[in-house]
Amino acid sequence: MLRQACHELVVRTRGRGLHEITEFVSDWLRQQRAQEGLLTLHLRHTSASLLIQENADPDVRRDLDAFFGRLVPDGDSIYVHTMEGEDDMPAHVRTALTTVNLSLPVNSGRPVLGTWQGIYVWEHRHRAHSRRVALHFIGE
Amino acid sequence: MLRQACHELVVRTRGRGLHEITEFVSDWLRQQRAQEGLLTLHLRHTSASLLIQENADPDVRRDLDAFFGRLVPDGDSIYVHTMEGEDDMPAHVRTALTTVNLSLPVNSGRPVLGTWQGIYVWEHRHRAHSRRVALHFIGE
Amino acid sequence: MLRQACHELVVRTRGRGLHEITEFVSDWLRQQRAQEGLLTLHLRHTSASLLIQENADPDVRRDLDAFFGRLVPDGDSIYVHTMEGEDDMPAHVRTALTTVNLSLPVNSGRPVLGTWQGIYVWEHRHRAHSRRVALHFIGE
Q1: Which end of chain B is more exposed for a tag (fewer CB within 10 A), N or C?
Q2: Residue A133 contacts residue A9 (beta carbons within 8 Å)
């Protein structure tokens, strides 16, 4: 019998960088007794992203952030929108270069992530923020 | 009782830049009497994108487009595929760097966008185009 | 009557570049007798992407790969995580700049792709790999 469930997860980031949420998401699926279906995540902000990336070596997350920091430098003189700080417009660009939506099939109660995949909120601002992630499940 | 609905939205762009479609999408959900569920948008083109971004200060959209214009310059000599104009291959690259699919949970009849989020078609060609967006809703 | 189906597709890549999977995906939908609904694809890896791009001129795919090769150079000295080879961290960055999830409405048994759109696995490593793509369908 198909059914759906939804939830909002609040993630407290500690400033720029990747914050893993895989366990929170898996726990919520377990509480819903989700077996087979489709899980959707949507981050309700424009200066942070959702990302699926390697969960093994933390250097990978450090290097990702270093690359994006060089590609989209803070305080770039190309921007007109500068009132909210030197990292605000770069945060919008980093969000546009990545994504705020994820869609994951669920199999035997778990999202079908690969062995090395984790789900992350990528904070693009230097300051800590509370980030809201809408979760939706449809299935059995 | 779960059900689904689909539609095609035609968006007339006025050349390179972001064109908001949030109201069209919300209106369609209202017409479907959608309450709780999942909304999917798919743009059927390879030289424009779908983007969720800030809907407040228009300078943010201007700056996004300025950054992408510098990152992916028109007329770049790296390209072989140049017959369709100096902005054609850059449009494909900008599309690859962003996305053509969005998935949004729907709650109380509305997509769960954040306060500052709007849904945009990002036209990457300089000329105006008609862009087709497939909409799909599943839920109650 | 709404129902769902899932599958895992294994794609053998031949090294860096785009590998089309549109036919495999369409065939699977046909086998499921899918008519109207939602198709989700998830690539279970962190050094390859899923991409919807032009299926006409092969130069477009060559140019996309050339642009990304210059934007995210192999052997970049910015990286700390280098043990798995000069193309490993660039593969993670290229994955972050693109996506590993796609969501496509299905209409009359086919994904609602535009005329020039194909579905690709984008291998970012130089060596050939087996890449697993989870497929999920919900609908009628």
Answers
A1: N
A2: yes
**Smallest CA–CA separation between C54 and chain B, in Å?**
6
Q: Is C71 helix (H, G, I), strand (E, B) or coil?
A: helix
Which helix H or strand E contains C123, and what residues bound it?
Answer: strand C117-123
What secondary structure does DSSP assign to A43-97, as a single string? Answer: E--SSEEEEEEE-S-HHHHHHHHHHHHHHS-TT-TT-S--TT-TTHHHHHHHHHH
Contacts of A48 (CB under 8 A, 6+ apart): A13, A91, A95, A100, A121, A122, A123, A124, A125, A129, A131
Given an 8 Å threshold on Cβ–Cβ distance, is B103 in contact with A40?
yes
Left, alpha or beta for C109 (phi > 0: left; psi -120 to 50: alpha)?
A: left
CA distance A80 to A89: 9
Least Cα distance to B64 among B76, B51, B74, B78 occurs for B51
Give CA separation, C13 vs C19, C117, C123, in Å. 7, 20, 7
d(CA B123, CA C98): 18
How, if at all, do strands B110-111 and B101-107 pair?
antiparallel
Q: Is the whole-model pTM more than 0.90?
A: yes
CB contact under 8 A, A40 and B36: no
Length of chain A counted residue by residue? 140
Burial degree of B71 (CB within 10 A; 0-12, 13-18, 19+): middle
- Annotate B100-114 with DSSP letters as a single string: SEEEEEEETTEE---
Q: Which residues pair with A6 in a beta bridge?
A: A136
CA A86 centroid distance within chain: 22
State pLDDT tens for residues A36-83.
999 999 999 999 999 999 999 999 999 999 999 999 999 999 999 999
Interface test with A, best of C136, C137, C138 (most A CBs within 10 A): C136
| Record: contact A53-C101, CB cut-off 8 A | no
- Tell whether ipTM is more than 0.95: yes
pLDDT at site A114: 97
Model pLDDT for residues A81-104, shown as the tens digit of each residue: 999 999 999 999 999 999 999 999
